[in-house]
């Protein structure tokens, strides 16, 4: 594994501070700038790609919005607010879905999955955003 760059270390520090659960590339770039860490967007992109390759980060692909990046850790699924764009981690929803039976009937060995449920968070609902 390559030696981590200062930018990669700054990204990990930012994410470990847990100001949010998952970030877009634009949010990572803006949050680094807000902390006084100036880096061009392409450098942030390359640092995130390295962190993905090193399994320090995980990419969560959303259907209608930009991908998010989160710290790599124990598996969980997500709720995504379509009003404010917040993401909330939730326990794995596939645990009781009978993956063994699915594997047996299809011949696949399931090694990973991603479940993102979209809706409106409690704060946005209180504000009348559906």
Automatic annotation (TrEMBL):
Gene Ontology terms: biological process: negative regulation of DNA-templated transcription; regulation of secondary metabolite biosynthetic process
Coiled-coil annotated residue ranges, if any: none
UniProt GO molecular function: DNA-binding transcription factor activity; transcription cis-regulatory region binding; zinc ion binding
Keywords: DNA-binding, Repressor, Transcription, Transcription regulation, Zinc
Pfam families: FUR
Similarity annotation: Belongs to the Fur family.
Protein name (record): Ferric uptake regulation protein
Organism: mine drainage metagenome
